[in-house]
Structure formats: structure tokens, C-alpha cells
Amino acid sequence: MNLSDVVKEFGLEVKTGSGHLDNEVTGGYVSDLLSDVLAHAEDGVLWVTLHIHQNIVAVASHKGLSGIVLVQGRQPEKDTMAKAEEEGIPIMVTGLSAFELVGRLYKAGIRGAEAH
Amino acid sequence: MALRRIKADLHVHTCLSPCSGLDMSPREVVNAALGKGLDLIGVCDHNSAENVLAVKKAGERNGLMVLGGMEVASSEEAHILVFFDDDDDLLRFQEYIYRNLEGRNDERSFGLQVIADDEDGVTGFCDRMLIAATKLPAEAIVQAARSSKGGSLVVAAHVDRESFSIIGQLGFIPPSLALDGVEVSAKMSAAELRERFPECRNYPVITGSDAHGPEDIGRRFTWFTVEDGTVVEIKKALAGRDNRKAEC
Fold first, then answer.
1. A58: closest CA among B103, B105, B213, B128?
2. Residue B60 parent element (H or E)
3. Which of B77, B106, B108 has its CB closest to that of A35?
4. B34-70 pLDDT, tens per residue?
5. Per residue in A70-108, pLDDT tens?
6. Residues of B in Cβ contact (< 8 Å) with A61
7. Other C-beta atoms within 10 Å of A95: how many?
8. How many other C-beta atoms lie within 10 A of the C-beta of residue B198?
9. What's the number of domains chain B is made of?
């Protein structure tokens, strides 16, 4: 499944990186601690978070994540948007809570790592 | 020594912070601060103090007082400003932070971490991942600062912000945390902070620029009525002791 499938399936609003929606989604990761994502997220996963600070872009870029979904309708900060466009990192927004979105992603076949 | 009123911005980064540019070199920082009429700055790069001595030296040459410190990220990702009068205390504290900070910097994603001398010569690059959080809970960071030989000044950074602030990350300020004060960001006034976060009424409030570029230095500042720009004096001002005062 690639990002554009996920965007269509779950009605996500694409805020940045619209030229990179062919990124393959290899799995999912949910966390609101950047250090945790730095330590544990794997290449290609879709990151679900409520974090809107621009550092999420640097973290996603460093880890090679396929994209970031902001939950509960949270809007990325202006600096975050600019940095994400510059780095080509797709940021999407859903009105759903993290729990609800992840449940639906899981049902659609997206998985997390089983153990670290 | 007589009391005087000094204009201070205690939250200034240098080119060592991955999110700051090369234009935040020691001389540029000092010149920009003097240009804004500041008497005192606090140098606090993320999880490192490797440019403090250079800025101190450049400041001394040009008549700017400089407090040496760092902005430490706790394991909960709360940012805490820690300053020392004694450079050896600061360097020992830095060693403790480094022992608890994992990872190597990725310059492409996070930016350069430039170590400079007081003449703006580049002397090296810090290869630790300074953008990362330490393994240390906020409590441990404060305790370590307090165990230094000389005095330490500990302030919770930008507590009004949602991310990287003690209130944003922990929900409220743990009452056991021995803070000298809290810092309000450039986003709101001290009065608004006390209004929106009533728990901050229990702490002295300062404000600082959190400057990552020269143009931001001094955009926010605190007036201290003190004898000198030292940790010992600033602590007295925050506690309102001996006619010292802090106003912002």
C-alpha cells in the first residue's frame, strides 16, 4: 500500500509533500515522543502523532519514514510546513483520534513491528 | 558593589545548536546582543556547552556579561535551562549529560553543530546527536545541577509551549522539582502566562528570546536588579532577596 491509497481510503488531508504520495507504507508507528521515534521507528513506516513542531520533519527525514499523519485535526505549524516541503516529507491530517485511525489502518493491513 | 538594573536575555543559542545557523557564531552573538542594548546573555545550546567559553571570551572583550549554561532535554522531552558561575561545574555537568545522550548527529536532517573560538574560527564539529533527548528524567537533571560545587540556576524553558516544555510533556510542574523559576516564550506575556497557567504563579517568571538567529536575540528580555550578572545574583533576584528584583 502506498500513501495515496491511505490518503484515499481514510480521507486524509494532504498538507505537504504531495509529490511523494507514491511512498510505500511498510508499516505503522504511533508516538508523541521524538526520541522514541528516533530510537524505534523503522524505515518506510507511517508515523501517527499529535506532534506539530518542525522537528517532526527532521526526525521523519532522518529515519526515512514514508509520511506523518497528524491526528484530531491538528494543523502543522508554519515552520513545520515549510521544512516539510523543503525536505519532501508528506504530512497529512485526519480528524480521527490516534486510537481510531490506527485501528482502521491495522484493519487495512498496515502493521507495526512485533517487538523491539 | 552597588545594585544596578541590567537587561538580560538568558536564552540564546549559538551555531552549535543543530537548528541554528553559522551566523550565530560567538562574535556575531555578542555583537547582536550589544546592538540590542543587552547587558547580559545566557548561552544555552541543546545538551551541550561547547561554545560557552568562546562566547564568554568574546563577551568579556566587548563588555557583555555572559552566563554559561545549556538547554537540556529530559527523557520526557522537557527542556530545562541550567547555568553555572563556575566553568568547571558546567563542564562536569556537560560530561554527565554526554554520558546520558545517545546517537550521532545526522547533519543532513538536523543541521551542522559548529564549535567555534572567540574569533569565530571553526575549531570543530560536535558529532553527538544534540537534537535528541537525554536518558535523564527532569528530576535527575535538576538534582545533578544542584550537586555542583558552586551555585546553579535552573529554569524550566518556555513552559507556555505545547512541545518540549515541562507542562506540555508532563501535564503540570512536579512540585518536587527544585526550580529557580520558569521561562515564558516570546509567544505570550508573563501576565498571560500566569493567567493561563495558574501554577506558574508559584514561580518567579523570566522571559528570553530562544534565539536561533541573530535577529531574534533580545526580542524578549528580563530586567534584573542585581550587583552583577552572575548565577548567585540572578538567583537572589528571582527569590526577591536583598533588594534584588526580576521584572518582565
1. B105
2. helix B52-62
3. B77
4. 999 999 999 999 999 999 999 999 999 999 999 999 9
5. 999 999 999 999 999 999 999 999 999 999 999 999 999
6. 108-109
7. 13
8. 9
9. 1
CATH number, position B83: 3.20.20.140
For residue A50, the cross-strand partners are none
Kindly list the structural domains of chain A, giving each domain's residue range(s) and its CATH number in brackets, ordered by start: 3-107 (3.40.1390.20)
What is this model's ipTM?
A: 0.81
Rounded CA gap, A66 and A91, in Å?
A: 10
Query: Chain B: nearest CA to A12, how far in angstroms?
Result: 24
What would the DSSP string read from start to end of B11-33? Answer: EE--TTSTTS-TT--HHHHHHHH
Query: What is the spatial distance between Cα B48 and Cα B50, in angstroms, rounded to a whole number?
Result: 6
Q: Are strands B245-247 and B222-226 parallel, antiparallel or unpaired?
A: antiparallel
Q: Taking a C-beta distance cutoff of 8 angstroms, is the pair B190, B248 a contact?
A: yes
Chains A–B, number of C-beta pairs less than 8 Å apart: 32
Q: Cell numbers for A94, please give them.
A: 485526519
Q: Which of A38, A61, A87 sits opposite B103 (nearest CB)?
A: A38
Chain B, 1 to 30: residues with Cβ < 8 Å from chain A are 19
- Backbone phi, psi, residue A82, to 5°: -60, -45
pTM over 0.80: yes
Nearest to A13 by CA among A110, A90, A108: A90
Cα–Cα distance for residue pair B17/B45, rounded to 1 Å: 5
Site from A33, A35, A52 to mutate, B interface, most B CB atoms within 10 angstroms: A35
Backbone phi, psi, residue B65, to 5°: -80, 140
Q: Backbone dihedral region of A71: left (phi > 0), alpha (psi from -120 to 50 degrees) or beta?
A: beta
Domain that holds residue B125: 4-247
What is the distance between the alpha carbons of residues B197 and B218, in angstroms, rounded to a whole number? 24
With an 8 Å Cβ cutoff, are B77 and A52 in contact? no
Nearest to A58 among B75, B109, B162 (CB): B109
